[in-house]
């Protein structure tokens, strides 16, 4: 008879889909089920998982969509024959910063779910507001300015909360919500993050916020390990700090906290055991660093809808252009993060323009031409050393780092004399843009992470030891090749065997650790002992190559100047339009 040991589910509630991934105690993946929001949902006018109100730069997602998706994923696992009785623990990961506003009826409805109905059918009135502001939202410029000013400046806010104010961060979002919909805010009984929303549904009562994900709000004082009352005061306005504290609830210190047993709904409808434990759910990026025993010298690049760069580090060095979060499982460690809005969708724009120009219609692999053209294009578009370097910024959506409006900028840079000119002269559009967009994204990562990398060996420049690619784009070996040339990584560029499911895998590992750990055993220790590199990762590209790394080092100087010039131009434009 087959091994009948315990199983663990990790959910990933991201921008464009919900995934459920099942592992056993040996960390092997046994089932995956996916619900694609655009393709598989019904009744929502969403595009790429979200709705937009361009006039106010709002981006938001219908919460009911996620309820439909959760039943959808569980149905999918059931069809695959998963024996739900074996599932001992469930953890999850949610797209970061999004907030869910619960109505006064929420606790009653959650506690009395009827297994004969879908979640969507019975929880429609559990929300005081039907939408969750999405991380791509850019409607909170005014609120961000208030947050940054409140503690004396961006540096101070970054020092206290790990980040300066960002449009998508939940504190500025709640402040705007509270001002825009005061009556709804008043009627809101609780506020969840997307991660704790997911845990709440599984528990059948409102779950606490997670110790790492709470750092994505601009409200949590990382050093004190508590909400910062000054920031809560700003956020809550006339409604007061105590009311907001009640709405947000407690935050357990333990990222592997056992929140309680799964609700009867899931026992009756899907056949879960009553003994199945719900573990704290974290943010999608914190969960991603849990998909392997990451060392402080390694870097992860998540090529999802957003591009994120992640490191686990013992040093807390906050800066207005980066993010620090509490590590999701290990006190004393932090997660360093860079986050870009213009990741996968921006690359898709270039891909589609190339396919259109070439008259390629609905190809089996939509990335084939993008990859071919990118690999044929020389680094920074320089056919000869004496050519000018081509570089640009490609932002179909307003960007986070640097904080600029949507737009495209193309430049020519002369590394010999350091001169830089905004010009598309010599650019063969859209073909040169395939390499330029990937280089641009990678150069930005190298620029902003260099303070955290160290020299891996005598005589080698500071760089990551390994670069792990995860997320949808990690399937792409051409992108991996350019990533290695720009970022380095002496040990090479790797992808996880689970491909674009790293985030769900990290959540599942969190559940394994939370249930099976010995007293005081760390996540790294437990997962490290069970993790077999040869089974779980694949080297897909070389990392450090001296000549390429040095060339991109020269390009980096031009890139930094280019960003500064665009920011200056934009500032003048903004002032002129005031
Ligand atoms: N072969 C590929 N090459 C490059 N990018 C890809 C490829 N396959 C998928 N992607 C990108 O992956 C993105 C989705 O990534 P994923 O991690 O699944 O998304 P999410 O942000 O919802 O977690 C898509 O926007 C797409 O651009
Ligand atoms: O805003 C951030 C991180 O700060 C995003 O990374 C979101 O967490 C959404 O991620 P994906 O859906 O792209 O995985």
UniProtKB/TrEMBL annotation:
Plastid keyword on record: no
Gene Ontology CC annotations of this record: cytosol
Primary localization class, coarse: cytoplasm
Record-listed E.C. numbers: 2.7.1.17
Domain called Carbohydrate kinase FGGY N-terminal: residue spans: 135-290
CDD domains, per the entry: ASKHA_NBD_FGGY_SpXK-like
Sequence ranges assigned to domain Carbohydrate kinase FGGY C-terminal in this UniProt record: 299-514
Molecular functions per Gene Ontology: ATP binding; D-xylulokinase activity
Alphabetical list of InterPro entries matching this protein: ATPase_NBD, D-XK_euk, FGGY_C, FGGY_N
Keywords: ATP-binding, Carbohydrate metabolism, Cytoplasm, Kinase, Nucleotide-binding, Transferase, Xylose metabolism
Keyword Kinase found: yes
A Pfam family annotated for this UniProt entry: FGGY_N
Top-rank taxon: Eukaryota
GO biological process: D-xylose metabolic process; xylulose metabolic process
Family: Belongs to the FGGY kinase family.
Role noted for this protein: Highly specific D-xylulose kinase which participates in the catabolism of xylose. Xylose is a major component of hemicelluloses such as xylan. Most fungi utilize D-xylose via three enzymatic reactions, xylose reductase (XR), xylitol dehydrogenase (XDH), and xylulokinase, to form xylulose 5-phosphate, which enters pentose phosphate pathway.
Cited PANTHER family: SUGAR KINASE, XYLULOSE KINASE
Protein name: Xylulose kinase
Organism of derivation: Monascus purpureus
């Amino acid at each position: 008879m087959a091994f009948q040991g315990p199983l663990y589910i990790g959910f990933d509630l991201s921008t464009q889909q919900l995934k459920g991934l099942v592992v056993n105690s040996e960390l092997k993946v046994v089932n995956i089920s996916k619900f694609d929001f655009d393709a598989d949902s019904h009744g929502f006018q969403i595009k790429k998982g979200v709705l937009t109100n361009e006039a106010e730069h709002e981006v938001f997602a219908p919460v009911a969509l996620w309820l439909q998706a959760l039943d959808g994923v569980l149905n999918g696992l059931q069809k695959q024959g998963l024996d739900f009785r074996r599932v001992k623990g469930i953890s999850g990961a949610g797209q970061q910063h999004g907030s869910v506003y619960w109505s006064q009826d929420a606790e009653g409805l959650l506690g009395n779910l009827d297994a004969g109905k879908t979640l969507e059918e019975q929880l429609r009135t559990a929300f005081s507001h039907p939408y969750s502001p999405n991380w791509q939202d850019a409607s909170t410029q005014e609120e961000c300015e208030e947050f940054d000013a409140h503690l004396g400046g961006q540096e101070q806010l970054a020092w206290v909360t790990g980040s300066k104010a960002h449009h998508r961060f939940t504190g500025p979002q709640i402040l705007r919500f509270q001002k825009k919909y005061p009556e709804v805010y008043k009627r809101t009984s609780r506020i969840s993050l997307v991660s704790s929303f997911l845990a709440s549904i599984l528990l059948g009562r409102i779950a606490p916020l997670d110790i790492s994900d709470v750092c994505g709000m601009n409200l949590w004082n990382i050093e004190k390990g508590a909400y910062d009352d000054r920031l809560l005061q700003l956020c809550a306005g006339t409604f007061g700090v105590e009311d907001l504290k009640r709405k947000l609830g407690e935050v357990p210190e333990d990222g592997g906290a056992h929140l309680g047993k799964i609700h009867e709904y899931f026992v009756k409808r899907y056949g879960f055991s009553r003994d199945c434990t719900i573990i704290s759910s974290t943010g999608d990026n914190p969960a991603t660093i849990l998909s392997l025993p990451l060392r402080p010298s390694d870097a992860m690049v998540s090529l999802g809808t957003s591009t994120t760069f992640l490191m686990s580090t013992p040093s807390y060095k906050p800066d207005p252009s980066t993010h620090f979060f509490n590590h999701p499982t290990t006190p004393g460690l932090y997660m360093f993060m860079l986050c870009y809005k213009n990741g996968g969708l921006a690359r898709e724009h270039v891909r589609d323009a190339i396919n259109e120009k070439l008259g390629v219609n609905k190809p089996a692999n939509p990335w084939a031409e993008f990859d071919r053209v990118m690999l044929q294009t020389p680094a920074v578009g320089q056919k000869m050393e004496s050519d000018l370097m081509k570089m640009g910024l490609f932002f179909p959506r307003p960007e986070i780092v640097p904080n600029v409006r949507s737009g495209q900028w193309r430049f020519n840079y002369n590394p010999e004399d350091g001169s830089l000119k905004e010009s598309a002269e010599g650019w063969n559009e859209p073909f040169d843009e395939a390499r330029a967009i990937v280089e641009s994204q990678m150069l930005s990562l190298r620029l902003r992470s260099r303070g955290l990398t160290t020299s891996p060996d005598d005589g080698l420049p500071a760089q990551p030891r390994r670069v792990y690619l995860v997320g949808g784009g990690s399937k792409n070996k051409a992108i991996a090749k350019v990533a290695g040339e720009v970022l380095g990584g002496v040990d090479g560029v790797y992808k996880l065997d689970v491909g674009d499911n790293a985030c769900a895998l990290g959540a599942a590992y969190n559940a394994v650790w939370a249930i099976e750990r010995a007293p005081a055993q760390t996540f790294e220790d437990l997962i490290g002992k069970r993790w077999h590199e040869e089974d779980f990762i694949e080297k897909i590209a070389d990392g450090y190559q001296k000549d390429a790394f040095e060339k991109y080092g020269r390009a980096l100087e031009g890139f930094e100047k280019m960003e500064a010039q665009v920011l200056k131009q934009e500032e003048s434009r903004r002032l002129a339009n005031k």
